[in-house]
């Protein structure tokens, strides 16, 4: 009986510890940080080969990891990676499978009810990728055409709203990942791929003939990308925000932009050739964690 009572007390203690332990305490106790990774969000977070995740957001994530290790004074910090999609990243954060993800996630007011967002790391617009000879210049030209988007994204909601409000008659299909959507566009099964412009430039750069494809259209919406964490963990969010703000104040964020958007990137030396926007320059000068609504 004494042994059983001791076991029950120990079990209760473990449960209480799990309930009360914040992210930084768990990382300190295990010397492990669990990171969600997108694997096809070029050039933010993607596989350069079968094992290596690289990208603009990944470099920011590695700076955050270094800041966590320094804050906790850990001799080493193991990174446990978990692949995520637009459909599953929120449940994986909430259930504790991952501690943080930093890829190409849009900060919206609706999502704030479920997860916490870091300082913004990028600003994008929802636009169109199509063949240069398709006669598509803006969203009105998509009327009656087949269009693909990536499932579970804010771009999906924006496009469906446009289609309904303008009675455009688009046939909208959803692909699991960005690269799958672009494969449909290259194959000619759809006339356009609607998504965040930065990601469209990434897919265009991977094409067999990049010059055959154009990113066009007045943005349906402007959105802020940010890293995401569990809600109600202010110390962890504050540390992540400081790491991002430091990157921007030091000029390192601008260096990372040039590295991933204006220079050849792995695995094939493709170049997005996308000059930095005024909105992003403004963000680097004044970091903040506000969505664009």
UniProtKB/TrEMBL annotation:
This is Transporter substrate-binding domain-containing protein. Belongs to the bacterial solute-binding protein 3 family. Residues 32-264 form the Solute-binding protein family 3/N-terminal domain. InterPro entries: Bact_solute-bind_prot3 (IPR051455), Solute-binding_3/MltF_N (IPR001638). Pfam families: SBP_bac_3. SUPFAM superfamilies: Periplasmic binding protein-like II. The keyword Transmembrane does not apply. Keywords: Signal, Transport. Residues 1-18 form the signal peptide. It comes from Rhizobium aouanii.
